[in-house]
Write a structure and sequence with these properties.
By secondary structure, this protein is mainly beta. It has two domains: about 55 residues, no CATH class; about 220 residues, Fumarylacetoacetate hydrolase, domain 2 (Alpha-Beta Complex). The chain contains six helices and 21 strands. A hairpin with a 2-residue loop joins strand 2 and strand 3. The chain starts with a strand and ends with a strand.
């Protein structure tokens, strides 16, 4: 099942994508969070349909959920970053207002940042409340999987120094409004092993990252277990699992207005967004 959150006919809706058509199942659920917790209820209704080119994709989570992002979770990316892998997962947060959907613009202010970068990431979307879950049981709390492009303002993230040491500014580099694409949909009950998926990024058609999720340092299950040991995970919360090597900053590549970024993950699809300068 491909569960999607979308806007059509001036209304936010919930749908299931079937053969490039979105079946509207909004009336089956109280919210998108409810849909993630009870996806089988989508089979009980048919509120009409829309062609996929008629809809606006929304990020497949809710405005009240949290996005947990794992840093330095691929060995080769940690090596290219020249940062030692910490003893436990390094996790930072994004606000829902940072997210944009599939085909929406990555918007940034050139008066704030001039070095925008891409990061292809597999994201697990939580379907059940989870607290202190073990790695062995963690995947049972996953509703499904989607794609996240952890777009980063590298000049802000990497630009601080104190007494000759480089400091990382996660807030400035990672949390600007409408800069983080997520989607297009959540794939439910179709991925048996999240640790064996090809993952790639392309900018204007050129492949810049090409790896497999099996190269993660800590698995999806390990990350969910760790986060749930710190806070309670709720349906709709997102665990982004880190990016492989090949990000732009270490190749003297950055994103410019009108660039198109594609993130493709096996079994999920392709998340496509274009860069533009923000208007406000």
């Amino acid at each position: 099942m491909q569960l999607v959150r979308f806007r059509a006919a001036n209304r936010d809706r919930i749908g299931v994508i079937e053969d490039d058509v979105v079946r509207d199942v909004t009336s089956a659920f109280d919210s998108f969070r409810d849909a993630l917790a009870n996806p089988d209820d989508a089979d009980t209704v048919d509120d009409g349909s829309f062609e996929t080119d008629q809809i606006t994709y929304l990020p497949p989570t809710t405005d009240t959920n949290t996005i947990f992002c794992a840093a330095l979770n691929y060995e080769a990316h940690a090596e290219e970053s020249d940062i030692a892998v910490p003893d436990w997962p390094l996790v930072f947060l994004k606000l829902p207002r940072t997210l944009v959907g599939h085909r929406e613009s990555i918007s940034y202010h050139t008066r704030v940042t001039e070095e925008i970068d891409y990061e292809a990431e597999l994201a697990a979307v939580i379907g059940e409340t989870a607290r202190h879950v073990s790695p062995e049981e963690a995947l049972e709390y996953v509703a499904g999987y989607t794609i996240l492009n952890d777009t980063s303002a590298r000049d802000l993230q990497l630009g601080l120094e104190m007494d000759g040491d480089r400091l990382l500014d996660w807030f400035s580099g990672k949390t600007q409004d409408r800069t983080t694409p997520m989607g297009p949909h959540v794939v439910i009950d179709e991925i048996d092993d999240p640790q064996d998926l090809d993952i790639a990024s392309r900018v204007n058609g050129e492949t810049l990252q090409d790896d497999n999720t099996g190269m993660m340092i800590r698995s999806v299950a390990d990350l969910i277990s760790f986060v749930s040991s710190r806070v309670t995970l709720q349906p709709g919360d997102v665990i982004a699992t880190g990016t492989p090597e090949g990000v732009g900053t270490f190749q003297d590549i950055q994103l410019y207005p009108d660039d198109t970024v594609e993130i493709e993950i096996e079994g999920i699809g392709t998340l496509v967004n274009t860069v533009k300068e923000a208007e406000n």
